[in-house]
Amino acid sequence: MDMTFAADLVERAAAVLALCRERGFRIATAESCTGGLVVGLLTEIPGSSAVVERGFVVYSNLAKQDMLGVPAATLAQWGAVSEATARAMADGALARSTADLVVAVTGIAGPDGGSAEKPVGLVHFAAARRGGAPQTLERRFGPLSRGAIRLGAVETALEMLASATRSA
Q: What torsion do the CA atoms of 62, 123, 105, 165 make, to the nearest 10 degrees?
């Protein structure tokens, strides 16, 4: 089969989808720096439409506000790349979908845009189940290539979805 992603990553995604199908969960994603790659990975698997509800690609701050209801005050105080924004993205994805489980990703993939406080490779994640509090994670991938940072973020988002599904 011709695949966009590496076979081992597709296999891990298929396992997450199978577990979600078994538990009756639907998934949504809220993605900034990954630009839809997480939902792209999930939809690489035949039959994913039984589990994948939707994907929000919210690259700009305006998109985060318009599509997910991320408060302007959160973006002003903490910035787009922050735990608070990832949490608000996850909350917004749950509120604006029929999904049971969401994962949100926001970060700096580079090569530009980093600072001493928020370097290239910094990515914040949030995973949440309907009715539960989001679980957050910060990863610092370091000064890798843009593609490596984005792929690392996709892998981490998948791990968070798997963990949230197993703990349900």
A: -160
pLDDT by residue, tens only, the chain of 168 residues: 566 899 999 999 999 999 999 999 999 999 999 999 999 999 999 999 999 999 999 999 999 999 999 999 999 999 999 999 999 999 999 999 999 999 999 999 999 998 989 999 999 999 999 988 889 999 999 989 999 999 999 999 999 999 999 887
The whole-angstrom separation of Cα 120 and Cα 143 is 6
Q: What is the dihedral of CA 123, 126, 127, 131, to 10 degrees?
A: -170
Phi, psi for residue 96 in degrees, rounded to 5 = -110, 25
User: Are the CB atoms for 9 and 150 separated by under 8 Å?
Assistant: no
Q: What is the pTM of this model?
A: 0.96
Residue 2 is encoded by which pair of tokens? Answer: 């011709």
CA distances, 155 to each of 12, 107, 138, 139 (Å): 9, 14, 13, 11
Distance CA 80, CA 148 (A): 20
State the number of CA atoms in the 13 A half-sphere of 11 facing the CB: 3
